[in-house]
Write a structure and sequence with these properties.
The chain is an alpha+beta fold. It is built from 26 helices and 27 strands. The N and C termini lie far apart (about 155 Å).
């Protein structure tokens, strides 16, 4: 057991209880009955001293959880103390709170007692809650704005990035180098001069800046980033830091759309610590330091025997030490003189093993026989001060994020219907700070009538927990009468009973994005209709060969019916596609254009198509190949018809050739028959008609001789002349039909005779050339050739007007 100085008794220890701002109580060990409690203890639990003394903590219901009491009693009985035990207590009004208790066994008037010192954790919990709220606001602001936060410290060239910014740049968490050069290495080489110029401009200019540039991720992909930020300077104008936001605007560059969200990183560690106590006397001796004091600062009674030894160790800075000593002594004198509580003094205490703690120091004199002693209590508020500093830093970062990213914030108190609108929120709608009041109606009256109902329904569903998140897009009336598109999102804050009490939200003006989105939709719709109703088979793919658009002709040609294939990989629909087609796709994705006017495409083992096709790449906004477009025309039917027509033409030509041969044969036979008929006619004319004419002429001569002169004689003479002419004509016709020389001497002599006749009759010189070779021709064939030569020679005379003709029989 810890032994207190022997001169302290129960009667004089009451002064120590009353002096301590920490709740302290004493109870007997054997039955747990309270024998003393100070005012701080009574205030904490809400009881009077009469209600406490003579009762146990169990009877009063001070323990919210009885098992916690049992555990701490077990520790006391086993090891004689229980330090820094956090438990839940219940006060007289039934309110549950948290405190940290340290129990030690002491002897008072020879009887074992338990001395309990409590630290109410309500203030620490409030600080923690404030930090959580601050953290949530900062995290929400980043999430609402869809951005990553960055901060550059010019003095050290250090760069702070959130994990969202690292992810934006394609880096894993913690993968960023943390300095300006690491950032610049990720910037596209073409844009690095732009970044350097902006950096130099920041050293001389103020105000919010915006900068768009490209980055190259480690995987080689190129992204567009919009940076917004603002510098912060000290009182002398020196640049302290530059904070801002990064927004991935790659999709906006390609389709002027895309917003991303990001989160901030906040660390809050709240540790509870016991209350350090020291017992000093008027002579400046340090008579006692409790274990909490040693644990907090590292000093024990061997290190600090007097107050004079304490001052230089706890406050090594001379000027600061003098201020602490003066402040402490004046407060002590005032407290002793007025008997009023010691006014707490906030000081920084240097710890034995390095570092310092911020404490609230207080003291009280002990009004008894030994009134030259006083109790010193040092409350460790280092954590609270750290939390306050972090909260201020979070607030500063929040303000920097809002200022750099033009994110408008609002906070709606659901209990009072009061809404706090940020200055940026009002500026979005064209208003100054004092032109809009903090009422819900200010928002409600400006929302477009068509959007108000659906937006309120989303809010109601979120408040009733029907939706896990609240996001909405709606139009709000600007001061100039126009409407602006707003993207809003919010997070819910609930009380201890999980009842909604507040909404923390943000507004982002997306009017420009909406306009771009509308134009993009119209363009995509026109493209979709153009492709869908194209008169040929047409399909558009991304780089993974997933369908982006497809024409009705494509679905029909490839027998896909009404199947929805948008987003499906081409190779899933056609798993048996030949490898050569995949190679063509790869070539086109590399930038080549491939086509064919007649190609075979097999589906399975039963169906073969003949296609005319062309495959072209399509390009994204940054110039890279975004995918391919395939044009395909099924020419199977046409090719079958062409082949059938070709076969029909071949068959027709064959039949024409056959018929031509038949006709030629028939013509030859007809010519032979005609020639034979001419010969017969010639023979008939020569043998029959010629002889008859000759006989008639002889008889007419005899008649002329017997007739006297007169008309009869004259008539006989005329008849004789006619018969002579008829005989000449018969001989000429016979010669033409079948020249006697041809029949008697052959073709060559006949042609020579023909040449003489042509020269005599027409004055045409005909040269006949004979190669001297045998010419085995039948009489009919010779007659046909003779007749052909005669017709040609006559045509030369009639049409060519040439005096010479040549004939070369071979």
């Amino acid at each position: 057991m810890t032994a207190w100085p022997p001169r302290i008794t129960l009667s004089n220890f009451n002064q120590l209880f009353e002096a301590s701002p920490a709740p302290i109580a004493i109870a007997r060990l054997d039955d747990g009955v309270f024998v003393q409690a100070n005012d701080a203890f009574l205030r904490l639990y809400g009881y009077s001293l009469e209600e406490i003394i003579g009762h146990t903590s169990t009877e009063l219901g001070l323990w919210s959880k009885q098992e916690e009491r049992d555990k701490i009693i077990e520790l006391i009985e086993r090891q004689g103390h229980a330090h820094n035990f956090i438990h839940e207590y219940r006060n007289k009004a039934g309110k549950v709170g948290r405190s940290m208790v340290s129990l030690d066994l002491i002897e008072i008037d020879g009887t074992p007692h338990m001395l309990g010192v409590l630290t109410d954790l309500a203030e620490l919990d409030q600080a923690q809650a404030a930090l959580v709220t601050s953290e949530e606001r900062l995290r929400f602001a980043q999430r609402a704005s869809g951005i990553g936060v960055w901060e550059w410290l010019p003095d050290t060239d250090a760069v702070y990035w959130t994990t969202e910014t690292e992810a934006m740049f394609g880096l894993p968490p913690g993968g960023f180098g943390g300095n300006y050069d690491s950032f610049l290495a990720l910037v596209h080489p073409t844009d690095r001069d732009l970044i350097t110029q902006q950096r130099q401009a920041l050293l001389a200019t103020d105000g919010v800046f915006e900068l768009e540039y490209r980055i190259v991720r480690p995987d080689g992909s190129i992204r567009w980033v919009l940076t917004k930020g603002a510098p912060e300077r000290d009182e002398s104008g020196a640049l302290l830091r530059v904070a801002g936001l990064n927004i991935d605007m790659t999709e906006r560059k390609q389709s002027e759309l895309r917003l991303q969200q990001s989160h901030a990183r906040i660390q809050a560690i709240i540790d509870a610590s016991p209350v350090p106590l020291a017992l000093n006397d008027e002579q400046g001796n340090v008579n006692y330091l409790n274990p909490a004091f040693t644990k907090a600062f590292g000093y024990d009674c061997h290190d600090i025997k007097t107050v004079e030894e304490w001052w230089p160790q706890a406050y090594p800075d001379t000027q600061y030490r003098q201020w602490v000593m003066d402040s402490w002594r004046s407060r002590m004198a005032l407290a002793k003189h007025t008997r009023l509580p010691f006014s707490p003094l906030e000081v920084r205490v240097a710890c034995k093993h390095g570092g310092e703690k911020v404490v609230l120091a207080t003291a009280t004199t002990l009004d008894n026989a030994y009134d030259n002693e006083y109790l010193v209590v040092l409350y460790d508020i280092t954590e609270r001060k750290r939390l306050e500093a972090e909260r201020e830093e979070n607030t500063r970062r929040l303000h920097a994020a809002v200022r750099g990213g033009r994110v408008a914030l609002w906070e709606w108190d659901l209990r009072t219907d009061e809404v706090l609108y940020s200055e940026e929120w009002k500026a979005h709608l064209g208003y100054e700070e004092g032109e809009i009041s903090n009422s819900f109606a200010e928002w409600q009256s400006r929302v477009h009538p068509e959007d108000l109902g659906p937006t309120l329904q989303k809010v109601d569903a979120y408040l009733k927990r029907h939706e896990s998140a609240y996001t909405a897009e709606f139009r709000m009336r600007h001061k100039d009468g126009s409407y602006r598109w707003i993207f809003s999102q919010a997070t819910l804050v609930a009380d201890e009973q999980d009842n909604p009490i507040r909404l923390l939200g943000s507004h982002v003006d997306i009017t420009e994005t909406k306009g771009i989105q509308s134009r993009l939709y119209e363009s995509e719709e026109r493209l979709r209709l153009l492709i869908e109703h194209a008169p040929v088979a047409l399909a558009m793919f991304d780089r993974e060969m997933r369908y982006l658009a497809v024409s009705r002709g494509w679905l029909n040609d490839f027998e896909l019916g009404d199947r929805d294939i948008i987003g499906v990989c081409h190779y899933e629909i056609f798993p048996d596609i030949p490898e050569r087609w995949k190679d063509i796709h790869r070539r086109v994705l590399a930038g080549e254009v491939v086509s064919s006017d007649d190609d075979y495409y097999e589906r399975g083992q039963a169906i073969t198509y003949r296609l005319r096709w062309e495959v072209r790449p399509w390009y994204a906004a940054d110039g890279s190949v975004g995918g391919i477009v395939i044009f395909s025309e099924d020419i199977t039917t046409r090719k079958r018809m062409e082949e059938a027509l070709q076969q029909a033409n071949t068959e027709l030509e064959h039949r024409v050739a056959e018929r031509t041969r038949e006709l030629r044969q028939l013509a030859a036979e007809t010519t032979l028959l005609e020639e034979k008929e001419r010969q017969l006619i010639a023979h008939d004319l020569h043998d029959d008609l010629g002889q008859l004419l000759y006989a008639a002429k002889v008889k007419l001569g005899l008649l002329a001789k017997s007739a006297a002169d007169g008309p009869a004689a004259q008539l006989a003479g005329e008849l004789d002349a006619l018969l002579a002419d008829a005989s000449t004509r018969v001989r000429t016709l016979t010669a033409q039909l079948n020249p006697p020389v041809l029949e008697r001497l052959g073709l060559i002599p006949a042609l020579e005779w023909l040449a003489e006749q042509m020269e005599q009759v027409y004055g045409l010189t005909v040269e006949v050339e004979d190669d001297g070779l045998p010419k085995p021709l039948s009489p009919v064939q010779a007659a046909i050739l003779f007749r052909a030569v005669r017709e040609l020679v006559i045509n030369v005379f009639k049409h060519a007007q040439s005096p010479i003709a040549s004939s070369r029989p071979a």
